Hints:
- The complex is a heterodimer.
- By secondary structure, chain A is mainly β.
- Chain A has strands spanning 5-7, 10-13, 19-24, 31-37, 43-50, 53-56, 65-69, 75-79, 88-95, 106-107, 111-115.
- Helix content of chain A is 0%, strand content 49%.
- The radius of gyration of chain A is 13 Å and the shape is globular.
- Chain B is built from no helices and eleven strands.
- The radius of gyration of chain B is 13 Å and the shape is globular.
- The A-B interface holds A 33, 35, 41-45, 48, 55-56, 59, 91, 98-102, 104-110 and B 4, 31-32, 34, 42-46, 49, 51, 88, 90, 92, 94, 96-104.
Amino acid sequence: GAGVSQSPSNKVTEKGKDVELRCDPISGHTALYWYRQSLGQGLEFLIYFQGNSAPDKSGLPSDRFSAERTGGSVSTLTIQRTQQEDSAVYLCASSLGLAGMGVSQFFGPGTRLTVL
Amino acid sequence: QKEVEQNSGPLSVPEGAIASLNCTYSDRGSQSFFWYRQYSGKSPELIMSIYSNGDKEDGRFTAQLNKASQYVSLLIRDSQPSDSATYLCAAHSNRDDKIIFGKGTRLHILP
Lengths: 116, 111
């Protein structure tokens, strides 16, 4: 596709269940980022991938959160034993290389997660 | 703790006037700065990036960077109602490749 795509667009789950969020970056983009945005808040960095590796996982809120990327393309963010405080919009972004000078991120539409 | 600070607003500006949005950052290792616009319920979209001290102009938008004072600003000339949105400032550090976002400033252009 032409842009970053994410699925599902909306997810409602019960507390304690596991959820899996998917991100399909722009073709050819080697860097992929996951962010979380709570209502009325800024973007909270979670994790980024350069290719298939994730050099920095320190942004993940707890060990219930994990992410993987295979084949240098699609990434999944998994939240185990969801809690109500996990409710937020989860945004994925990709860039040609690591975001910085001359390289900009492009965001997907997000997945709105609601934990009841 | 690296931080990017923005006034949450709302900032109300009459249509046709200049809107001035400001942002400060704490990490002196930050090298690249970005302004994103986010409409309610939508994902952020990149407006401008700036890496060097001074001004960078793109149409009605001008980004300004002062690394000595650690602030970044965005000017919007001839403000239009369609400019009403939340504007997010972000800073990237080459040291750890993290991009830190501010919480955003809500801008409201008054028709």
